[in-house]
């Protein structure tokens, strides 16, 4: 079990990070992720943290890649991976647990996260809270995690940007969220269509009713054409719509998890194949892929 | 406020006793496995107008007869459903009983002349009352409910039980997991507090008690509404733990049975039956404070027949998964069993529960000194005196 042994090795080397005052931002990211999926993979490298969900059938084919710079969240960050040339740790965890542990982090004096191995590998989150007395209250949460052996690290590679037909900025997420939530009551699937003139429609259609919400003047992000890889979008008729029919619940989960308005929110549509959402906050980037259904 | 009390009680069980007595109104509830007992007492001052008349019943020889009765919580809850809304809309709430046709009427006089009347039937029934001597507990903590609420917020709502462990220098609440749970799946949370955070901190014996959190949350919500600090009385594991609040207008307590590790087998777990604290009150000379370590039951021969019960109790109890098989258990055969009206059930293999004495006014010779006082530590003076007439315990 070479992979496993390597996994254990990296446990012995601790990851310690503390971040007073930034807990709530991290908490926000974790909250979003916990709404998207029950379990996900956390990849730790020297400078970045990644939350990854790979596109297995169990997730309904949806996949996620969320990247954050550890420097923006942690005051102190120490990590030693499996081996010098693979200085990374991959953990499988339940984001809901982490979200719960960080619930009070916003009022904390300090938060420390350590990877330990008691009965089983755990992420130990220690939150130091202010209290009325001289000594603070300390809350520790032991979150069980699974260490992912190196041999399957390849499963968690960064997804490539699809060759999209249309790329468009999303409307104000709050509005989009309430529209989608109401549509969810009527149908299980939603069609997203958009064109390069900044127009987007959200459509549902059932036997009894069909509802369409139109958004205008959204704007299309200017992707610099590098070696013609965006050619499918280049010569495209500005008015023609690219569309994809996706599971409405996945879209609703993505929107529900957004508490704060992102700096940039856009989606790339590959007609009838996949919708690729990109949400950028100051220090976090979240990509979410929802495959199109027939 | 009244509504909130009902909500708190609703967490314990589906029915509760509604027991008006001269001094005020008592509400009591016991959960199905007899491991939790809630008691809320509203003194007559709490009410704008409190009228309690003794019904003289020719069948009974007592001079006074109060009317304990049992109500289904689900029926009463809707009356007080939205405690917040109630506060704003309801100007007056009046509760009246008519024993003849077994009805209780709740009447809410709301704003704009709206009057809501609820007629509920009740069952006449003798309520149970947990017997628990708070003043005997070596460990007493008193703290504002806000602190407890802040602590409990760290535990998920699905967390069933938590463990409170104290030493003279620290207090720790941690989530409790059964021995056979899969640790690779469960999250464990621990909160460490310093004794300074408590308004009153007395630890006579280092102990670790495990009790049900779900039932406690009800009382915590209620006490936050009242703003009265919460007192926690407990002892070693196996003995019950009591959470109570006390104020001029009302008092409330929640007594929970605690888990204890069997001394013999490391694996088996059982809820030991808290011994009859009530009986100790018949021995006023018994020192309460200075035997913190001798809470081990077998060392107290004064507690009538309790010494032999301890090994008996342990033999009968086998290790069982806690969440299944919550049968109603009575007190296993002890010297007291024959006396207590409620508890003459055969020994159960499952865990034992709190000991309950029937609050039966009919059986009592001394009518004035009711069992009510046993559940609260406040009026110990009265207890010790004329309680020779309580053969039950």
From TrEMBL, chain A:
InterPro entries, per database record: HUS1, HUS1/Mec3
Gene Ontology cellular component annotations, sorted alphabetically: checkpoint clamp complex; cytosol; nucleolus; site of double-strand break
Any GO BP: mitotic intra-S DNA damage checkpoint signaling
UniProt keyword terms in alphabetical order: Cytoplasm, DNA damage, Nucleus
Subcellular localization, as worded in the UniProt entry: Cytoplasm, Cytosol; Nucleus
Subunit structure: Component of the toroidal 9-1-1 (RAD9-RAD1-HUS1) complex, composed of RAD9A, RAD1 and HUS1. The 9-1-1 complex associates with LIG1, POLB, FEN1, RAD17, HDAC1, RPA1 and RPA2. The 9-1-1 complex associates with the RAD17-RFC complex. HUS1 interacts with POLB, HDAC1, FEN1, PCNA and RAD9B. HUS1 does not interact with RAD17. Interacts with DNAJC7.
Family classification: Belongs to the HUS1 family.
Function: Component of the 9-1-1 cell-cycle checkpoint response complex that plays a major role in DNA repair. The 9-1-1 complex is recruited to DNA lesion upon damage by the RAD17-replication factor C (RFC) clamp loader complex. Acts then as a sliding clamp platform on DNA for several proteins involved in long-patch base excision repair (LP-BER).
Name assigned to this protein: Checkpoint protein
Natural source organism: Lepidothrix coronata
UniProtKB/TrEMBL annotation, chain B:
Subcellular location: Nucleus
Gene Ontology molecular function: double-stranded DNA 3'-5' DNA exonuclease activity
Transmembrane segments: none
Catalytically driven reaction(s): Exonucleolytic cleavage in the 3'- to 5'-direction to yield nucleoside 5'-phosphates
Stated role: Component of the 9-1-1 cell-cycle checkpoint response complex that plays a major role in DNA repair. The 9-1-1 complex is recruited to DNA lesion upon damage by the RAD17-replication factor C (RFC) clamp loader complex. Acts then as a sliding clamp platform on DNA for several proteins involved in long-patch base excision repair (LP-BER).
Species assigned in the record: Lepidothrix coronata (blue-crowned manakin)
Keyword terms, alphabetized: DNA damage, Exonuclease, Hydrolase, Nuclease, Nucleus, Phosphoprotein
Family the entry assigns: Belongs to the rad9 family.
Gene: RAD9B
CDD domains: PCNA
CC terms in the record's Gene Ontology section: checkpoint clamp complex
Bias (Low complexity): 330-342
Protein name stated in the entry: Cell cycle checkpoint control protein
Biased amino acid composition, Basic and acidic residues: 315-329
